[in-house]
Design brief:
By secondary structure, this protein is an alpha+beta fold. The chain contains 4 helices and 6 strands, in the order E-E-H-E-E-H-E-E-H-H.
């Protein structure tokens, strides 16, 4: 199995060179650990174009691997050999492990060509919740980041109101 972690750096989508954002990758995990995700079917005529586009998009440290996708509530293989992109710790943009609070602070401070790093985190956490999936790592980082943003809004609001006095 795998587990989802915010260990990969992103200087092309959710950060910039010198200030990379943090995005998820999958790490092998034992014992078996389920990771909820989405699988998209691509028409045979479009496979080459789609894979080339994804290879370009995920070039910042991700390897293309094949994985089996299982049904949500049992181990029935729904898709055999689905293309998946997984970063490994040997790539130049790999940031590695840190405390979940530090990861949240890092995410709150980064923005790249695809938008603010928190947008990536919040959309992922919201989607996982909608799907009824619990991901302790993502949800803990999400909670820290929302608290950090709330604290920053209070400080900003107080600063503006104090400046008006």
């Amino acid at each position: 199995g795998y587990r989802r972690v915010f260990y990969q750096g992103s200087t092309d989508h959710r950060g910039v060179p010198g200030k990379p954002g943090r995005v998820v990758t999958l790490l092998p995990h034992e014992p078996h650990y389920d990771v909820m995700g989405a699988v998209f079917e691509v028409l045979p005529a479009d496979i080459e174009e789609v894979v080339n586009t994804l290879d370009l998009r995920e070039q910042g440290g991700y390897d293309r691997v094949l994985v089996n996708c299982l049904a949500k509530h049992n181990d029935e293989v729904l898709v055999k050999d689905a293309v998946c992109y997984i970063a490994n710790h040997q790539n130049a943009e790999y940031l590695g492990e840190d405390t979940e609070e530090n990861i949240a602070r890092h995410i709150c401070d980064c923005e790249g060509a695809s938008g603010h790093n928190t947008e990536y985190l919040f959309k992922l956490a919201d989607w996982l919740k909608e799907e009824g999936t619990h991901d302790e790592h993502v949800f803990t980082i999400d909670a820290h980041a929302r608290r950090i943003f709330a604290d920053r809004l209070v400080v900003t609001y107080k600063s503006k109101s104090e400046a008006a006095q």
